[in-house]
Inverse folding.
C-alpha cells in the first residue's frame, strides 16, 4: 500500500541535509492490516503508540476517533518532548513517562501514559523497534498485541487501513453513519483521484512544507517552503470559496480533510512562530477558518489531540526551551475553533 504522497524523495538526502535542508526519512514497517495473513482485522487486537504534538500521529488519532475505534484500538501517549542528554538509555527519543513535568504547565500531563502493549513496560519508543531488530524510533506505531509485532509505522498507510477495516476492527459507528474517508468502487473513482491529488499537494506544500520552513537552516530552502505553503493555503481558500463546499472534495469529510487538519490546527498557535510561517493566520482565510472550525466540531476530533502537548513539544525543542503563553487574541486556542464567526 505504498502512497507516494506520504514520502519525500531520498535522492542526495545526505548532501541536502548537510546544506541545511530538512529531509524526512522513510518508514520501514509497511504490513497491510487485513491483507497480510499475520495481521487480520480483529477487534481489540491492535494498539497505537503516538505523541500528541506530532502531526503524523494526529492523523492517526483523528482516524481512530472519527471512525469510532476508540474502544477497539488501545493507545499509549508519549510525553511531547524527547529525552534529554542525561537520559540513562539515550537522548532525543520519544518516551512514555506520565511522571514527567511539562515546563508550560508546571505539572504532569494527564494524557501521557506508560507503555502498556508489549508486556515489557518499555519507556522509549525505540525499545519497541529494538525488540524487532530495527534502529527506527519514530511514532506513530500500529502494534499487534497478540503477536507482539509492529504492523506499520507510516501514518498515511495506517489511516487508510483503519478506514478500510473499520467495521472488522470493531467500530462503534454503524456503517451507514461512519465517514468513508477513501470510498472504494468504480463509482467513486473520480473522487479518489481528487483525494489523491489533494493529498499530494497538501503533503508537499503544507504538511511537509511546514517542516521544510521551520527546520531548515538554509534561507533559500526556507523561502521556497514558505512561499509554497502560503500559495497552497490560498489555493485551498479559493477551492472552498468557489462553491461554498463544506469540505475539500464536496459535501463529505474525506481523507484529504483529515490530512490537512493537523497542520492547520497547529498553525495559528504554534507554526506561525515556531515554523516561521508568519505570513498570515488561518483566521485570515475566512473559508479555511470556517472549514477548520467545521472539522473541529466533528465527533471525536477535539478529543484527538491537545494544543498543550503541541506547544510544549515544539517550543520545548527550541534553543531556550521556553514555551510562549499566547496567543490570546481574538481568544485563546483551541477555544477559538468553536467560533467560525471570528472570520466573518
Amino acid at each position: 500500500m505504498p502512497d507516494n504522497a506520504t514520502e519525500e524523495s531520498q535522492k542526495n538526502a545526505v548532501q541536502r541535509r548537510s546544506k541545511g535542508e530538512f529531509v524526512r526519512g522513510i518508514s520501514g514497517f509497511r504490513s497491510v492490516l487485513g491483507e497480510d495473513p499475520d495481521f487480520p482485522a480483529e477487534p481489540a487486537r491492535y494498539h497505537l503508540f503516538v505523541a500528541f504534538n506530532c502531526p503524523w500521529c494526529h492523523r492517526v488519532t483523528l482516524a481512530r476517533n472519527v471512525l469510532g475505534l476508540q474502544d477497539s484500538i488501545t493507545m499509549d501517549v508519549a510525553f511531547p518532548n524527547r529525552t534529554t542528554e542525561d537520559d540513562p538509555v539515550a537522548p532525543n527519543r520519544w518516551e512514555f513517562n506520565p511522571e514527567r513535568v511539562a515546563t508550560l504547565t508546571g505539572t504532569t500531563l494527564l494524557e501521557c501514559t506508560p507503555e502498556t502493549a508489549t508486556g515489557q513496560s518499555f519507556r522509549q519508543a525505540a525499545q519497541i523497534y529494538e525488540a524487532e531488530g530495527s534502529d527506527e524510533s519514530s511514532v506513530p506505531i500500529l502494534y499487534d498485541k497478540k503477536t507482539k509485532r509492529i504492523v506499520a509505522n507510516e501514518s498515511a498507510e495506517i489511516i487508510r487501513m483503519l478506514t478500510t477495516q473499520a467495521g472488522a476492527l470493531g467500530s462503534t459507528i454503524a456503517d451507514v453513519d461512519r465517514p468513508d474517508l477513501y470510498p472504494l468502487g468504480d463509482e467513486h473513482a473520480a473522487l479518489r483521484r481528487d483525494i489523491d491529488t489533494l493529498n499530494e499537494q497538501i503533503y508537499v506544500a503544507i504538511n511537509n512544507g511546514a517542516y521544510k520552513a521551520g527546520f531548515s537552516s538554509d534561507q533559500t530552502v526556507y523561502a521556497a517552503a514558505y512561499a509554497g505553503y502560503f500559495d497552497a493555503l490560498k489555493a485551498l481558500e479559493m477551492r472552498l470559496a468557489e462553491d461554498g463546499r463544506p469540505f475539500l472534495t464536496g459535501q463529505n469529510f474525506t481523507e484529504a480533510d483529515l490530512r490537512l487538519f493537523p497542520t492547520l490546527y497547529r498553525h495559528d498557535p504554534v507554526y506561525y512562530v515556531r515554523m516561521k510561517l508568519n505570513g498570515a493566520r488561518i483566521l485570515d482565510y475566512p473559508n479555511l477558518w470556517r472549514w477548520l472550525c467545521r472539522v473541529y466540531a466533528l465527533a471525536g476530533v477535539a478529543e484527538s489531540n491537545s494544543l498543550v502537548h503541541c506547544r510544549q513539544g515544539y517550543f520545548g525543542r527550541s534553543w531556550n526551551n521556553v514555551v510562549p503563553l499566547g496567543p490570546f487574541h481574538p481568544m485563546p486556542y483551541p477555544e477559538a475553533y468553536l467560533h467560525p464567526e471570528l472570520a466573518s
The chain has nine helices and four strands. Residues 186-343 form a domain with the Glutathione S-transferase Yfyf (Class Pi); Chain A, domain 2 fold (CATH 1.20.1050.10).
